[in-house]
Specification:
two-stranded antiparallel ribbon; Rossmann fold; five-stranded parallel beta sheet; about 140 residues; alpha/beta
Length: about 140
């Protein structure tokens, strides 16, 4: 190319601003849970985005812009388990943690079978969960 000439292949599109790699998507229909999780994760250095609709959440799980997701098992009339199953079938690869008030082994198994990476029962200690998650990610790396 000659000096002073512009390439005809120059990119004319505006750059896309992606969230930082530490942005987590919280999918829960309970605003109090969502707010508490967002505050607790912010203290650990994470940025969060929230969603309360399974349809909109599916699109966001597939867009590749989040480091991971926390999905409530019961999303009002929708199922977080079905959401995870559909997202995994569509190719979503981000780590997904299922969050539930249901604590029986059968519930945990049902939450993990569609492809969630972990299952946590509500009313957990965020600091302990955070330490365990960091430990698991270190072991699996």
């Amino acid at each position: 190319m000659h000096p002073g000439r512009k390439s005809r292949f120059a990119c004319r599109a505006k750059p896309i601003k992606l969230p930082p790699a530490n942005t987590l998507l919280i999918i829960d229909d309970d605003p109090e849970i969502t707010s508490a999780l967002a505050r607790g994760l912010a203290l650990q250095g994470y940025e969060t985005e929230t969603e309360n609709s399974a349809d909109r959440a599916l699109k966001r799980l597939q867009n590749g812009q989040h480091a991971g997701a926390i999905v409530d098992v019961m999303l009002g009339a929708d199922s977080g388990i079905d959401l995870v199953r559909t997202a995994r079938a569509a190719g979503a690869t981000l780590p997904i943690l299922m969050l539930s008030a249901l604590s029986e082994v059968e519930h945990r198994t049902a939450g993990l079978q569609p492809g969630a990476d972990d299952y946590v029962v509500k009313l957990f200690n965020l600091k302990n969960w955070w330490r365990a998650s960091k430990c698991r990610s270190t072991v699996s790396a």
